[in-house]
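User: Please fill in residues for this 275-position structure.
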């Protein structure tokens, strides 16, 4: 068992619990329950920052295009973007397929949850500023450009499922050596490891906080592995990160999700655990 923090749907406060990251279960009121059988909300309380091209394969996959205009060279610093609050989604929540699209890109990402204000931290001290880690599905509309802010591709409603919990930092021996897998309809579609990061966790935190302060509750995504799989309407998507847990969501037509959200908001007790 590992210590983790969860947020029950409809309740603002985070609660500390014991979780089993291998079976994706949580202990509540003396019972061990599947995360998919509990109404858990996204545990995020701050801003989510994504990182582009931080997996070696993702950068290598661009080939010689990195030497073309407008930059004419590989990036020398982290390339960041924001997943705003409208994108936040939860384990078990539906991911909306926008009208006119047939597929979405599934972005499996380790989320570094900041525990205290971090500014100009050193690599040696970087992990002291980490509260824990979570699983993030950085959903995107498939697109080719990496040089322009992809707001319309990455910032749509529901495009950032997070959870099901935040595993405490001390429960993860080495965040730079975690298996990352994506399953679509229970079929393994992607497998990688955080050992392939260009900037490991400590270095990424040091590089980012050199010019930008991160606050408690913020989440910094380490990046998305190359060849991110695509999912279509009706698909069930599961992102697994070793030692952290599994995040599961379905893809639905955006009109269906709007109807579901209205019904979800009408459920009874705020402390209702079971879905």
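Assistant: Residues filled in for all 275 positions:
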């Amino acid at each position: 068992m590992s210590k983790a923090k969860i947020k029950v749907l409809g309740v603002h406060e985070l609660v500390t619990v014991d979780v089993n990251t291998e079976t994706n279960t949580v202990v509540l009121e003396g019972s061990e329950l599947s995360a998919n059988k509990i109404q858990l909300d996204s545990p995020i309380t701050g801003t989510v920052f994504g990182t582009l091209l931080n997996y070696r394969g993702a950068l290598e996959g661009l080939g010689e295009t990195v030497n073309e205009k407008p930059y004419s060279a590989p990036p020398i610093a982290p390339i960041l973007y924001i997943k705003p609050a409208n994108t936040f989604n939860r384990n078990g929540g539906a991911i909306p397929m926008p009208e006119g699209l047939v597929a979405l890109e599934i972005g499996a990402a380790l989320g570094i949850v900041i525990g205290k204000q971090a500014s100009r931290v050193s690599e040696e001290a970087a992990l002291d500023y980490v509260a824990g880690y979570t699983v993030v599905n950085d959903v995107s509309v498939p697109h080719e450009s990496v040089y322009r802010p992809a707001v319309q591709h990455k910032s749509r409603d529901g495009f950032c499922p997070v959870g099901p919990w935040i595993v405490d930092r001390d429960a993860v021996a080495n965040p730079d050596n975690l298996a990352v897998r994506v399953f679509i309809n229970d079929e393994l579609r992607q497998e990688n490891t955080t050992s392939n990061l260009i900037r490991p966790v400590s270095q990424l935190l040091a590089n980012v906080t050199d010019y930008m302060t991160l606050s408690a509750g913020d989440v910094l995504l380490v990046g998305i592995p190359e060849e991110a799989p695509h999912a279509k309407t009706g698909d069930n998507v599961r992102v697994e990160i070793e030692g952290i847990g599994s995040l599961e969501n379905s893809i639905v037509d955006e009109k269906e999700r709007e109807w579901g959200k209205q019904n979800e908001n009408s459920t009874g007790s705020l402390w209702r655990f079971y879905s």
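For context: Residues 262-275 have pLDDT under 50 and may be disordered.
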